[in-house]
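We emphasize that the prediction below concerns an isolated chain of 264 residues; any contacts that depend on oligomerization or on bound cofactors are therefore not represented. The input was used exactly as deposited, without trimming of termini.
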Amino acid sequence: MSATAQEMTAPQAERLARARAVLGTAEQRAARWGGRIDRTALRAVPRSAPEETPEVLGSRLPVPAPLRPLFPATGLRAGSALALTGTGTTSLLLSLAVAAVGEDSWCAIAGMPDLGLRSALDAGLDPCRLALAPGPDLSPQALSALVDGVGVLVLGLDLQLAPALWRSLLDRARTADTLVLAATPPGRADIQLDSRTRTWSGLGEGSGRLRRRLLQVTSQGRGIAGQRSVDVLLPEVRGTIAPAATSAPAVSGRPVLHAVRRAG
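Result of the prediction step, given as a token string:
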């Protein structure tokens, strides 16, 4: 008896012997017809060998590079929820959705009635894999169907969610491995982001347009030790974000509009 067999209990050894005998008989019968049976399934595995278990918490999804310092090293987990409060929520939500959707997933957006297909396209979303549900009073059945059918669900500020419905959506999202990105939800999420405007740029002396703003975004939650913070730029109306640059002229706080005198 081999060392591996000695480590097994008597009932296990008997069951393994009977299985090998049955397989031997089947192998002999199959050999008559030129067949072959693989016996590797009955090889005993030493108890000391660690078994690799699949990750039951869902796959990991990428995040935008400027926001990467805010998250755990592995990124966002499919089936988790992210809550976002503060300023610039629409741009940040779209940027997070674009990164998480990738090349083949579907994205659904609810509670953003002012968001059109052109804005979604400019943000980087594929309109062929996008579902828009702009109404503020979507039924729980409609929201549940969206959670079950897409990889990323974005919930805007105009969506009226009850705390019980929020908890129900999170339960379904964990089951379906759907990432939920929500602006100011009525309950807790796995990761909480908060953003505030630090400076604006684009105004000159009495003229110009607000072209970009500097945001400070902080994060806390599961997998994050303490609180993290990063500065990012919203450089375009399209909603794309960029790392903060110190060379751009900025106006602190709210933009100050100067009156322009007319000649004559």
